[in-house]
Write a structure and sequence with these properties.
With 102 residues, this protein is mainly α. The protein contains three helices and no strands. The protein folds into two domains: 71 residues, no CATH class; 30 residues. Helix content is 53%, strand content 0%. The N terminus is likely disordered.
């Protein structure tokens, strides 16, 4: 996997084991910090930036754990669909649980 210099530095920051008090954010990066994320400039919307940060962190954790990216070719299209269905079923359960609190 090749990263440009900025992305490699950022990836190294993401994969460090640090506790910044908010697990939803990439360690050392706040929602409003004017820094590039893998070549993308954060948006003016802090919620979008938070989602981007969570995605980058989740990706780094997945690469660390499974040693592959989502571009892996050992999973068939049907298997990808099954994975997505399983994730969405989990999400439906979480939403049903939250709905009880309303």
């Amino acid at each position: 996997m090749e990263f440009d210099r900025l992305s490699e530095d950022y990836y190294n920051r993401v994969t460090k084991d640090e506790d910044d008090g908010d697990e939803s954010l990439v360690p050392g990066l706040t929602e409003t910090e004017p820094e590039y994320v893998f070549g993308l400039r954060p948006t003016a919307d802090p919620l979008v930036n938070k989602v981007i940060n969570r995605m980058v962190k989740r990706s780094a954790e997945g690469i660390e754990k499974y040693k592959v990216t989502m571009l892996r070719e050992d999973v068939s299209t049907a298997q990808w669909i099954d994975h997505a269905i399983e994730e969405l079923l989990d999400a439906a359960i979480y939403l049903e649980r939250l709905k009880r609190d309303l």
